Structures are given as C-alpha cells and as structure tokens.
Amino acid sequence: MSGPLVLTDEIRSALESRAPVVALESTIITHGMPWPQNFETARRVEQEVRTHGAVPATVAVLEGTLHVGLNDRQLADLAQARGVAKLSRADLPVCMATGGTGATTVAATMIAARLSGIEVFATGGIGGVHRGAERSFDISADLRELSETPVTVIAAGAKAILDLPKTWEVLETLGVPVIAVGQNVLPAFWSRTSDHAAPLRLDRAADIAAAHVMRGAMGLQGGQLIANPIPEADEIPASELSTAIDTALAEAESQGIHAKDVTPFLLARIFDLTGGRSLEANIALVLNNARLGAGVAREISSIRQEIASGANASL
C-alpha cells in the first residue's frame, strides 16, 4: 500500500506560510475532455490560477497515492491514460488501498483539499440530482460532500444535464449556501442564466472569503457553493442547448447507461450535437472559475494572516 497523501514542495510551502492555494479536480482531464484538449486545458487552468496570484493544486490518485499537485509529466500521463477510475467519496480509499489510479470528482477533490488544508476549490460544474432521479435515485455524492466538508467550491452552477430544480432543493435541505456571483439568478453551466432565483448573492471575492471564514468561526459544518456565471461572450443560451440535452438523455436511457457513466456519455454526445461549442464553453467557464478561485484564495489568505498577526501581537 502506498502513502496516503503527497503534496508538492511548492504547495506544502505555500500552506505553511498561509499563501493562497486553489485545489483543482482531475476528472475533467480523464472524463470531461478528449486528448489533447484535456491536457492543454489542465495546464491553462493551472496557469490562470498562477497569473491571478495563487498556487494551483491538481488532485489525482496515482498508483495508490493521493497527489495534491501534479507535474507536467504526471498531467500528460493522466490525460492519455485509459481505464482511469472516477473517484468519489465511496471509492477513493479503495482505489488508494489497492494501488490504483483514479481521477477525483468534486467530492473526492474536496476531501483531498480538507486533508491538505486547502480552503478553495475551482471546478467546472458540480454533480447533482440526475433527471429521472425519482425512479433511479441517482444523486451525486457532491451534494452531501458540500454539506459536510469545509471547502468553498467555485463552479458555474450544476451541470446543465441535471435536474437543476431538484439539485437546488437538495442543497437547500442540506443547508449548503448557494451564492450567485454578480447576478440574482443562478447560472446553468454553459448558460449564464436560468429560471432559478439565487438564494444568495455576493459580488466580490473579499465577501465570499469573509463568508467562508465566518462559517468556520461559527463551527458550521460544510462548505459553500459559489455559482459563477460563464462569461457572456462564451455562453450557449439554454434555449439552444435544450434539444441537444434532450437527445443525449434519450440516447443514454435507450443504451442503458447509468451511474458514473452517465455524465461522461452525455458530455461527449452534447459535444457532438453542438459541433464542439460545448467544449469551448466548458474550457471558458473553467478558466473563469480558476480566476475567481484564485481571488477568493488570496482574500482568505489575507484574512488568515491578519488573524495570525493579531494573535501574535496579543502575546
């Protein structure tokens, strides 16, 4: 059995000095995009985090070890690997115990972030309640993780292939703050807006950071979901996507695709049905979330350093 957790020297040093760090998932590399766009996007997202003043920490399990931070060779190997496991809360420890290799979902990345002391995680979109869940009970573990693990997650809402009304209802029941950035409605992944009013709205990274720190100070369990709309120039209006989504869902059902295989299948089919526009939008929204994630991480770092300075001054 390999060691459970490995941080790069850069990330360990940043955390020890309370410098800003942003966790990044790896299923977008292995299950969300084709080669070589997946590798190129992973590098661009990491660079976006760096450009905006934080250290990127891409998470994956490699031969049984949970890596927080990957080098270019590891990223390239993962991007081209076949048969990589898609890891959530339930199967993360099993993969590690058996020496496997796997990409982390939102839930598993949040767990790795918590274990490492990273407070901010930027991704594309979270998982949620799948359409037809009243029959299948197919609900992503991401929702429960958000209610239990104290990490701020920056996403462009939940993936548009999901049952969005039910997803928001479950998050409300679980007590997860769902905060829209700069608008009064929730984004819908590839689309900036939806028919769903935002329960909460914040416009500045500083306010998002303050809310995160306040939750911790109050001893409240869980994190917060920051719904960051895709840039206007890159969005695909929901009205244009609806036909593609409906077609892909019907194909998945007719082919008996279910559980963890559903999301990768749907994303691949919607890519085909939109002539590649969904992938372009996906890349744009991930980069946008990385920028905001870096900003929030910087603000949290500043608050933590002020708290530490105040405590030292009182000694």
UniProtKB/TrEMBL annotation:
Binding site for Mn(2+): D138
Manner of cofactor binding, per the entry note: Binds 1 Mn(2+) ion per subunit.
Keywords assigned: Glycosidase, Hydrolase, Lyase, Manganese, Metal-binding
Catalytic activity, as annotated: D-ribose 5-phosphate + uracil = psi-UMP + H2O
Domain of life of the organism encoding this protein: Bacteria
Active site: E25, K159
Class in the EC hierarchy, top level: lyase
Cofactors (names): Mn(2+)
CC per GO annotation: cytoplasm
GO biological process, one term: nucleobase catabolic process
EC number: 4.2.1.70
GO MF annotation terms: hydrolase activity, acting on glycosyl bonds; metal ion binding; pseudouridylate synthase activity
Coiled coil: none
Role: Catalyzes the reversible cleavage of pseudouridine 5'-phosphate (PsiMP) to ribose 5-phosphate and uracil. Functions biologically in the cleavage direction, as part of a pseudouridine degradation pathway.
Family assignment from sequence similarity: Belongs to the pseudouridine-5'-phosphate glycosidase family.
Subunit structure, as described in the record: Homotrimer.
Protein known as: Pseudouridine-5'-phosphate glycosidase
Species whose genome carries this gene: Palleronia abyssalis
Name of the coding gene: psuG
